[in-house]
Specification:
heterodimer, A: 483 residues, alpha/beta, Rossmann fold, 2 domains, nine-stranded mixed sheet, 15 helices, 28% strand, B: 123 residues, five-stranded parallel sheet, 5 helices, 20% strand, globular
Chain lengths: 483, 123
Amino acid sequence: MNLARLSTGIIGFDEILNGGFISKRAYLVRGGPGCGKTILGLHFLSAGISNSEPSLYISLGEPVEQIKTNGAMLGFDTKAITFLDLSPSADFFTEVQTYDIFSPAEVEREPTTQRIIESVESLKPKRVLIDSMTQFRYLCTDDFQFRKQVLSFIRFLLNADATVVFTSESSAEAPDDDLQFISDGVIHLHNSLEGRNISITKFRGSDFIAGLHSLRVTSQGIKVAPKLQTKLLKQEFILENISSGIPELDELLHGGIERGTVTILTGPTGVGKTTLGLQFMKEAAGRGERSVIYTFEEGEETLVARSQAVNIPIHAMITNGNLSVVRVEPLHLTHDEFANQVRHEVEENKTRIVMIDSVAGYRLAMSGADLASHLHALCKYLQNMGATVILVNETENITGDFRATELGISYIADNIIFLRYLEIYGEMQKAIGVLKKRLSNFEKTLREIEITRYGIKLGKPLVNLRKILSGTPEWVEKNDNTK
Amino acid sequence: MNVKPLILTVTSNNRNLELLNQFLSKEGYQAIGASDLQEFISAMNQPIKINLGLIDITGFDSSIWNCCEQLKNQQIPFLIISPRQNAVIQNQSFVCGASNLLIKPLVIKQLFNLIKSLIEDLE
């Protein structure tokens, strides 16, 4: 059975909910102060307004004028929303309207309910936001009355064909477990120093994406970046080799790297990892394919300048739309947001090669979050989509005993290409080799690599060398027949 | 019974008085309110028959008890409403002739049941 869905007004949030709220149900939005409960509610009502559904905002705490002003600042059309202001007016304080002869439950419950009934009956809203339900707790003499009251209130609204979102101020001191049991769905908003999150723990009658998703409050309201669902997102693609455009490099790789694979380019600083990655993109651009580089360390200008200097026409590639260089500021995005940015590139812009420069920068930029699992999810997604992933990994050792990566990510890679410095006859030389290639065989020898102003040049295989992984290789036979 | 029973309400808090009278009239009683001792005394001295007194002692000094004595002398039954449970207040209330002592906040239903039975007793 397909249940009618109502958009929440937030694209990423709809995605988490598999399309939105189920209509004529009641949902609880809970969170501490400043989590964005009211803004989320405003999104929900505004989405109704744009579908010309009557929407009602019942405010029990914040004055309506203030909500309207704040909402308008975030770009909501608050004029179109009907507000019912049940917040205490200033008179309550100035005209000494305090009383103690009866409990508030006895005095205020009835007029409050009466006003709600009147508004609902006259407006017949399709969407109702109650901000916040916590206030009702004080209008009921005990927990049982509260629960009964809320249940019957919600029933009343649902019978009037409304979909209800109600907020609750939750804290350890004032738990709201009872409201969680009552509602058809529970949405949690979290706000911590590390960032904002949204998660769902209950959604009657529907599946949802579990776990924490990034949430950001921008000047246009809430933006939600759902966690990557690698299983669900898939695209058919032909598993073919993509050439580097350098015959010797293709020989080394027995044809190039395959689509839908993850390649780690590893090596010490300055050895030419980024340039090598760009070489694949240059060739892809020649075929009219789009690539994107996420650079975490280097600015776009320096990258452009130095690539131009080694005969990679990065400027032209960018102008033709075959390349996009995206500088990612440290600590600016969460991994979910970054992943969604990549998703957009792949799904909307049909990007075929994605390079992350570098893995260490990625880790740092994503506020030290669990690197391997997030990178793994991102790479899996890109593989499913048939994109070629290039991860640039910097090793700290210039020479010495060989280690593929230092971040424990080698297992993600289908291909590991390493670049390194070698000392041969007292001279520093660069060499390239392949350590792993899942889908084909590869050359087991190293080749000399040089980056010149005409581009990348690879030499013949360095045979007869031994201890090639040590950094100070020796010739097997002393007679120099390779040079 | 065609005439609505008249209840004298005394409380120093205006909002309390307003609420109390509002609820009483809703239940079919007439109410006259007094928010200080002066009004209390003049209400007692009016040539009308008061059926019951509801006296919230919050905010009054001990001279409230003299007024209560007067009610007793006029054979008007009355209830004392106290902000808290207190042995001295309880004792004083019954010495002055109160029919009962109620502690705030009052439960409306119970209050009306009590009023009803007190007024029915009189008839």
